[in-house]
Amino acid sequence: xxxxxxFMHALTTALPHEVTHTVLAxxxxxxxxxxxxxxxxSLLSEPEDEQATxxxxxxxxxxxxxxxxxxxADAHDRVPEGRDGAIHTGALSRPLPGEPART
Length: 103
Fold this sequence. Notes:
It is a single chain. The chain has 103 residues and is mainly alpha-helical. The chain has three helices and no strands. Helix 1 packs across helix 2 (35-43).
């Protein structure tokens, strides 16, 4: 694992994110955790302000109709053409307005 850039960002955001990928690969085996799940779980290890940034970007993608449902996708599925990633309401770490809070 090689981290670069601002030291505090690497320490507080990138390192926990990348360590989470490593733990998941160690637990499930390389490539055995669905790619979208691996990334989503890793995002949850980031600080709240970074999660809020990801949430805002995910909401913008959803609002523009460029997301896709990851349910049923496997670890090797490719992002459909014209889509920006495995983005759906389940990928948001905070509920959409009007949704109940997750527990």
